[in-house]
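Morning. Coffee machine broken again, so started the prediction first thing and wrote up yesterday's gels while waiting. Chain of 72 residues, entered below exactly as on the submission form.
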Amino acid sequence: MKPSQLTKREWKICEAVHLGFDHYFLNGPKDKRPLTEADIVEARDLLSKLPQGWSGEEQPWMVCKGNKKKGK
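Came back before lunch.
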């Protein structure tokens, strides 16, 4: 599975589970949502299908995309 195939919500729950958090922020810092058991099960299933380094792929909905390396 390609990281670009994830919805924003799927990405966020995968990120939270991967980092060991008990919550995620879907639409900014004021939109804190607790991870439910169903979210955790879904995220673990998705994480098993994603390639290593999946979280480094930029997505169109990302606000802060970091610094780009020269030549890219």
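The longest strand covers residues 23-25. Going to sketch it on the whiteboard this afternoon.
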